[in-house]
Design a protein that fits this description.
The chain has helices at about 1-15, 15-30, 35-40, 45-50, 60-80, 85-90, 95-100, 105-140, 150-155, 160-170, 180-220, 225-250, 260-280, 280-285, 295-310, 325-345, 350-355, 400-420, 440-465, and strands at about 60, 380, 385, 390, 425-430, 435. It is mostly helical. Strands 1-4 form a two-stranded parallel sheet. Strand 2 and strand 3 form a beta hairpin.
Length: about 475
């Protein structure tokens, strides 16, 4: 009996710390305990008052959104670390708590098994932020201003929230693998919605970029005109090069017609050409003076990326190219964090993001909008040391829809989960085991979202012409 207990201890002792290591990684990466002054700034408005004097003045709403973005970034880093083969092997030792995955005895099959455990680990890590942001979205429904009792939870108690996220992640490592079959399909659904939101964020960014540089160019700085032209050329050139490479490397295979890949590539190219011609139309330019090739270039580039990602994940093997999935994961993660950071900082009610509910009070754009006459912040009472000035700019009304903000971050968590696992889905296998496979579901999710993206952008161009009596900002 002692020998049996000893064997069980030896078997579990190598992997048991892993869930708690994930918890510790989150807490240590955000500097819980205040080891440095600048890490306190990442903990929201309340902690920012403890920062060094050189930290810039900021608003309550901006500091809080940056803190949530940093939290999601830290969770993504922890999830990415679980993709290391050595960690996947250790996670496999948790089968006593989570159930087994059927694996063969060959080295190739064992390597595939380790990869499956790693991707299940990524699912478990993102269980924490996804459920946390869902809870926060429910908790902050109909918050009107910072005088609401729930404002303290949204803007403060960061130690408690970090422990909550880390605890949820730790607990997820003891949930049975069968739960994540359903969890994967939930993630796939929300990832689809986030891809459309991500497109709106990108188009909003391109509109703001175009308007800002046009104004500066008309003010006398011709370099901005050149910058817009160069950016537009790079976007279209990149899309063209990727499309050519897709035709060359993903449409030819001995014994395979690859007709589906050819259709996806060709249809995306045709739709891209249509929206490009629309954006150049004189009637569109008359109705929307700020429309141009830059915005359509951003849309074409994004949809070309989605097409490439879908084709590289297709079960129809029409290419011998290796490493394509890794590149799509990296590009997808970068685009996601650009969208998340932009959604955290962009709050203009005149923006497309504002129309979606992210802005409600006409807050000024930018990180450092403040009023020098505000009485918040200032000198510390002890020793006259000046602390960072953090202004509560939401006393009369919230600057953005808090509940919707958390909902978007929940969907971003699911999207990152799918991107880092290369859109893996889990299904029941023989003997109640779990197998990993990409399948057609993720392919069609990406392609349909790509077509919806182009249709939404095309509608934004033709709607002012079809309904001239309505105001389209």
């Amino acid at each position: 009996h002692r020998n049996s207990q000893h064997r069980v201890f030896d078997q579990t002792s190598t992997f048991f710390p892993l869930p708690f290591a994930a918890m510790g990684a989150i807490l240590s990466l955000v500097g819980l305990g205040g080891s440095t002054a600048w890490t306190a700034c990442c903990c929201g408005a309340s902690a920012c008052r403890m920062c060094c004097p050189s930290c810039p003045t900021t608003t309550n709403s901006t500091a809080t959104r940056i803190a949530y973005a940093v939290l999601l970034l830290v969770c993504a880093v922890v999830a990415w670390l679980l993709l290391l083969p050595a960690i996947g092997t250790d996670l496999a030792k948790m089968h006593k708590y989570t159930g087994k995955i059927g694996c063969g005895t060959s080295d190739q099959e064992q390597g595939r098994c380790s990869d499956q455990w790693s991707k299940l680990g990524v699912y478990r890590v993102f269980f924490g932020p996804a459920t946390f942001f869902a809870l926060m979205a429910i908790l902050t429904i109909k918050v009107r201003n910072s005088n609401d009792c729930r404002a303290g939870i949204h803007n403060g108690v960061w130690m408690l929230k970090l422990l909550l996220v880390a605890g949820a992640i730790t607990g997820a490592f003891f949930i049975d693998n069968s739960f994540f079959i359903t969890w994967g399909w939930i993630g796939l659904s929300f990832a689809f919605v986030f891809m459309v939101i991500q497109m709106i964020l990108l188009v909003d960014f391109s509109h703001s970029w175009n308007e800002s540089w046009l104004a500066k160019g008309e003010a006398g700085s011709k370099a901005y005109f050149f910058g817009l032209l160069l950016a537009t050329i790079l976007l279209y050139a990149s899309s063209f090069v990727v499309t050519v490479l897709l035709y060359v490397y993903f449409t030819k295979r001995d014994g395979q017609s690859c007709s589906q890949n050819k259709f996806f590539i060709s249809f995306n190219m045709i739709l891209g050409l249509i929206v490009t011609l629309l954006s150049m139309s004189s009637r569109v330019r008359e109705a929307l003076p700020t429309s141009g090739l830059l915005q359509s270039g951003v849309v074409v580039f994004y949809t070309t990326y989605l097409t490439w990602s879908a084709i590289s994940d297709s079960p129809n093997v029409c290419s011998d190219v290796t490493g394509s999935s890794t590149v799509t994961v990296v590009v997808g993660a970068i685009l996601t964090f650009v969208a998340v950071i932009y959604s955290s900082l962009r709050t203009s009610s005149a923006s497309q993001l504002g129309k979606l509910g992210m802005a409600t009070n006409g807050e000024k754009d930018g990180l450092l909008d403040y009023n020098d006459n505000d009485d918040d912040g200032g000198d510390d009472e002890e020793g006259g040391r000046r602390s960072q000035k953090v202004i509560d700019n939401e006393r009369s009304g919230v600057a953005y829809n808090w509940s919707y903000f958390h909902l978007v971050f929940m969907m971003a968590s699911f999207y990152l989960m799918m991107v880092l696992t290369d859109w893996a889905t889990f299904r029941d296998g023989d003997n109640a085991t779990v197998e990993v496979g990409k399948g057609y579901a993720s392919v069609w999710v990406k392609m349909v979202s790509s077509w919806i993206t182009i249709l939404l952008y095309a509608w934004s161009l033709v709607a002012p012409i079809m309904f001239p009596d309505r105001v389209f900002n």
